[in-house]
Amino acid sequence: MDAAEIDAAGKGLQFFGDTVVEKCEIVEGQPNVYLLQTSIHLERNSQSEPKPGQFYLIRAKHSCVNYNRPISVYHSKTLFNSDGSKDVEVQFLILKKGRGTDELCNLSKKDMMTVIGPLGTQWPEPEKGVDKILIVGAGIGVAPVANFASTLPDNSYDFYASFKSGSYGLENVHAKNLVITTDDGSVGIKGILPVALTKEAVQKAGYKVIYACGPTPALAYIKKLSDELGIKSWISMEHRMLCGLGACLGCTIETTEGLKRCCKDGPVFDGKIIKFDPPQQRRKPLAPETEPDLSVKIAGVDFKNPVIASGGTFSFGQNYRGVSDVNAWGGICSKGITLEPREGNHGERCLEVAGGNMNSIGLNNPGVPYFIENLLPQMMTLGPKVIANLAGSDVESYVEGAKLLDKTDVAMIELNISCPNVKAAGLAWGMSAETAFYCVSAVRAATKKPLMVKLSPNAPDNRPIAIACIKAGANAISLINMIHGVAINIDTGKPFFNNVHAGYSGPGLKPVALRMVYDVVQEINKLPQEQRVPVVGIGGICTWQDAVEFIMAGASAIEIGQAKFTNPNVAIDIVNGLRSFMKSHGYKNLEEMRGIAQTQPHSSAHTDEKGHYSDLKKMMGKKSECGCN
Length: 629
What we know:
Helices cover 23% and strands 25% of the residues. By secondary structure, it is an alpha/beta fold.
């Protein structure tokens, strides 16, 4: 903590604690904008009160997100108590656009929230003699500039506000000239900000300083205007944050003076130093009458959509029939089956942990013959394509199981090579390219069925293993299986699971799985076109947005595992979300979207010709040696 942030007693000036929600209500005419109010009790008179432009990190006390959200102060008022202490009544305007803000917008009166702040820089006051002041707010960005405007004398500034539809947040704005634009023309001038705030209008008004906050395109436009006309500008920037205190260096933005922290050096910056990326062209939406094609072909098998129920979490397709439409899935992988029946592991089998669950089932299954005679016929009537997930401990059991499945109507075999290899000291078959090649080659010789090989995330590098599987005859690759983890029972002081190690799966797995899918696809793309095979992504996929990421990383389809436990309709939700996204972004089929994120790896160097690492050292205010954090 900087010296400027502690009082004479060495105590912090910011507030950190829980407060009570006094009000949380939707803003009239705005379906996704909410007004949230709370009061913060200042424990000491030296503690800071919020200044215009500053923000708080806030989060619902009982939350499913890990980090507080940075929300600018919309309005604040100091209340003096009889004992000499102070309370600060703080209002926030919040746009519901993600998990964290969704939780905040759904708070009720008397709910608890966690608050840290006030944080960041404030709006600089206009210099003496400057009487031509322009304030610009666009969308939810109207909140911090409206707060600033409320501190200025009435009629001492002009205010431009730009919205998609309707208007809000202007109750405390008393401008000489208030100009409102709306995309749909519902209020004020129809059109976006530049329709009203033209270069000619700015010149004619003779503004000497501009204060602005809003989405990036609007701020880039303000900077362009102010730079061309030589007008001083102050711009409030937005960025994802973790600590909000300047410690983690996670919210840096590009400036002409090097990297700057949005939370500590900002959010209010001198407009002349900010560097905006060139605007990216968005794809045009599909015509209203055009429906995107969600079908996909994998190893010669046609799937009506790319959403497949992962092995081990959907049993044999019957369990979910009472709660959801099983026919919504593009395909269903059976529970992992071995040649002989397996009772599975004894003791505890599952445990909820942060970001998912751990489980140690032990391939509990009735065996391939029983599956073929009693379970497969029912699976075939469900509608989705049926994939048999085949496991084993030695090559002989894999081969014999594949021979039996070859005579059935299953569309494909998914070969699980994450199983222990009893002839290699228990190491999984998929831990090396050599053992994977040996196992896949043997199974390939035993069946003519399309063969998809499921890779383990516990291998040092899946890229050479994937190539070895392809050379051995794999028609497709799926990844990843579960990551090994350990849990301890703190009451007994013993491992929670009898086998000590257990599989970890859930949303927390997604970044790791996405990285492995990305890398494997990139490696496969180095092969000649005729040797390439499709990749099916697995791991932490819960939403249609997750599915889009995997497809853009190069996956042809996805498998959903544990997300079915909490949302049996997950396949329906993902298919509907995919369809809407493809329509709005102009993708006629999945192939147009697949792999578009693939690019050359970025350099991991710490420095460039401008010495950006040195800039980070300056931010920390001390010398340091180069090292990764």
